């Protein structure tokens, strides 16, 4: 939350009322007690206009008194920070500074920072609010900005557009604006737009008693526990581990809310496997890999409140695999199965005894119950496995032996450099294998002029241009 503090009238009248106003706003922003999602940032207007007087008292002096009293009245566990703008340089729209990080136990630090401010510059109102919102991680957590300002934006920014942009990017974000001693219709309209574009409210401070009444109403509304609609979750009573399934919900608080599946005994801040609520009143979740009792939850974005729950059981799954007892090294072979859990699951061949998270030559399950794998090049004992994409858990196994292979090649004893010549073999292991001609003694991974094996047992190669032994 963000507060930009105004300028005030004499301490005996308006300043006392302003203290109550700002205290109320900060309390409504942070709630009666503090929590991690409700930190507050005070953004103090320290532009040159703060030297203007109300009833003979400079506005900056009133602000110092108000904030001094405010710090005494706020709950000690309320996390508070301080921003200021226009206090270091004249004519500089980038003169915005975070003076104190939001936290507790920093009241004296804030007091001293405010006392040291010397108004000088312009009013980069929009950018100050944006920076304060970013400091509160408004895109991830609930954030409220309470802006108390006595003037109009002077740095070529559009507060209306800024409010709209912050609202669109925020999880649960709003700005309440107090226009303190703001008489110009254009300035009032600008501040009102900034508030209303985020779902907040604008409070003109020209009538102090009416303002205090309105702020009391808003304080009671915002400080109270939020009122949520009754939401009914619709989902199967049981699904298979790793399975993708749909969840329906009768309404939403926000399209940024979260639909999650978590273990039934987990804390409310556990998100498990989750998806955003979106705008269609339905979401797709993927069941975890471990069977047991789980819970589907509707979680309010930014606040973390769980406002709807539904029990669901995750059932164990087993996949039966069919494959040859033995295959030739490097060959392709068929693998069948009796079911698909998730089309993104994997069928793989790995050395016997390999850990469950090891993947060898693999293929996505997809929906077809038959697929082809390529046997490893090294002979030995292996295992064909069905592996859940969720958690890389193995739920199907079949032993298989990979045997060695010998292949006979026939070719002329000598050929002319650069000429075409015929090569014949007695078998094909894999149609994608290569027949190649390389210098005698070359390493096995060297390839010269080559040709895919394909299924035909006869093919032609081109001899290298350089004479020699090959």
Summarize the model shown:
The protein has helices at 11-30, 59-73, 107-115, 125-135, 159-169, 185-196, 208-223; strands at residues 2-5, 40-45, 53-54, 57-58, 80-85, 96-103, 142-149, 172-179, 202-204, 233-234, 238-240, 244-249, 258-263, 273-276, 282-286, 292-299, 306-315, 321-322, 326-328, 332-337, 346-351, 361-364, 370-374, 380-387, 394-403, 409-410, 420-425, 434-437, 449-452, 458-462. It has 470 residues and is an alpha+beta fold.
Helix/strand class: alpha+beta
Main pleated sheet: 7 strands, mixed
Q: Helix segment count?
A: 7
Strand order of the largest sheet: 6-5-2-1-7-8-9
Radius of gyration: 35 Å
Total beta-strand segments? 30
Low-confidence stretches at least 5 residues in length (pLDDT < 50)? 1-12, 32-37, 207-216, 218-223
Q: Between the first and last Cα atoms, what is the distance in angstroms?
A: 77 Å
Tell me the strand percentage band: 25-35%
Binned, the helix content reads 10-25%
Rounded mean pLDDT score: 85
- Characterize the overall form: elongated
Oligomer: single chain
What does this structure look like?
The chain is elongated, with a radius of gyration of 35 Å. The longest helix has 20 residues, at 11-30. The chain has 470 residues and is an alpha+beta fold. Helix 1 (11-30) runs parallel beside helix 7 (208-223). It is built from 7 helices and 30 strands. The strands form 8 sheets. The protein has a 7-stranded mixed beta sheet, sandwiched between helices. Strands 11-17-16-13-14 form a 5-stranded mixed beta sheet, with no helix packed on it. Helix 5 links the parallel strand 7 and strand 8.
């Amino acid at each position: 939350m963000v507060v930009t503090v105004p300028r005030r009238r004499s301490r005996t009248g308006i300043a006392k009322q302003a203290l109550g106003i700002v205290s109320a706003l900060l309390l409504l922003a942070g709630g009666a007690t503090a929590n991690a999602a409700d930190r507050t940032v005070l953004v103090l207007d320290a532009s040159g206009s703060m030297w203007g007087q109300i009833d003979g008292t400079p506005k900056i002096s009133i602000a110092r008194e108000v904030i001094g009293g405010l710090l005494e009245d706020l709950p000690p566990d309320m996390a508070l920070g301080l921003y200021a703008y226009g206090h270091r340089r004249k004519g500089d729209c980038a003169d915005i500074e975070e003076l104190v990080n939001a936290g507790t136990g920093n009241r004296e630090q804030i007091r001293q920072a405010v006392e040291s401010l010397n108004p000088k510059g312009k009013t980069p109102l929009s950018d100050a609010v944006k920076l304060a919102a970013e400091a509160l991680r408004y895109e991830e957590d609930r954030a409220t900005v309470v802006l108390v300002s006595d003037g109009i934006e002077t740095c070529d920014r559009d507060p209306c557009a800024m409010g709209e942009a912050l609202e669109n990017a925020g999880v649960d974000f709003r700005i309440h604006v107090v226009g303190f001693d703001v008489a110009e219709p254009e300035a009032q309209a600008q501040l009102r737009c900034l508030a209303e574009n985020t779902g907040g409210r604008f409070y003109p401070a020209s009538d102090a008693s009416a303002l205090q009444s309105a702020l009391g109403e808003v304080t009671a509304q915002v400080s109270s526990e939020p009122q949520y609609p009754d939401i009914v979750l619709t989902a199967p009573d049981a699904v298979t581990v790793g399975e993708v399934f749909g969840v329906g919900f009768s309404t939403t608080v926000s399209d940024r809310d979260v639909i999650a599946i978590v273990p039934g005994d987990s804390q409310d801040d556990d998100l498990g496997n989750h998806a955003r609520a979106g705008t269609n009143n339905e979401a797709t979740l993927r069941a975890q890999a471990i069977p047991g009792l789980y819970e589907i939850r509707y979680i309010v974005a930014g606040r973390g409140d769980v406002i709807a729950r539904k029990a669901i059981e995750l059932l164990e799954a087993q996949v039966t695999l069919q494959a040859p007892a033995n295959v030739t090294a490097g060959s392709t072979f068929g693998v069948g199965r009796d079911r698909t859990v998730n089309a993104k699951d994997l069928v793989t061949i790995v050395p016997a005894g390999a850990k469950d998270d090891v993947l060898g030559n693999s293929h996505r399950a997809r929906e077809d119950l038959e697929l082809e794998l390529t046997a490893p090049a090294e002979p030995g004992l292996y295992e064909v496995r069905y592996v859940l994409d969720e958690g890389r858990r193995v739920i199907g196994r079949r032993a298989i032996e990979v045997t060695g292979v010998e292949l006979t090649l026939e070719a002329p004893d000598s050929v002319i450099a650069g000429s075409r010549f015929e090569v014949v073999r007695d078998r094909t292991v894999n149609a994608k294998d290569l027949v190649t001609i390389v210098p005698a003694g070359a390493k096995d991974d060297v390839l010269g002029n080559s040709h895919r094996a394909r299924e035909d047992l006869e093919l032609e190669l081109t001899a290298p241009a350089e004479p020699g032994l090959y």
